[in-house]
Amino acid sequence: MNDRGPEAVFNAIVNGRLEAARDAVQAALIAGVAPDWSLHEGLIAAMGETGRLFEAGDSYVPKMLAATRAMRGCLGLLRPAFVASDVRPVGRVVIGTVAGGPARHR
Asked: Alpha-carbon distance 69 to 50, whole Å?
């Protein structure tokens, strides 16, 4: 298996292997792979595949949780790379509820 690039990140995350995923992200950063490429083609694509496998009945919740932990572990490595490359956030998401909510207006 290639130990660099989004493919290695993808495979490690789909298999829920935190240390392998972190090693692959670190190797990709050292090799000069752009952090946004690792994010989109590695992390996000792997979580999409994990969801697809779950929907098809070929995976189960603990495996999804392992993949999520592996992805979160990689984000910590990518975050400084994004800051260093001066990537700006596209926006901010705010989620909230109103006290009393719709049920109160019946």
From this structure: 12
Short-list 60, 39, 50, CA closest to 13: 50
Residues 3, 75: Cα–Cα separation, whole Å? 18
Q: Which CATH architecture has domain 5-86?
A: Orthogonal Bundle (1.10)
What pTM value is reported for the model? 0.74
Over the stretch 4-56, which tens digit does the pLDDT of each residue have? 567 888 999 999 999 999 999 999 999 888 888 888 889 999 999 999 999 99
**H or E stretch at 41:** none
**How many angstroms separate the CA atoms of 87 and 89, rounded?**
7
Please give the Cα distance from 53 to 50 (Å, whole number): 5
Tell me the CB-side half-sphere exposure of residue 34, using CA atoms within 13 A: 7
CA torsion sign for 12, 6, 82, 84 is: positive
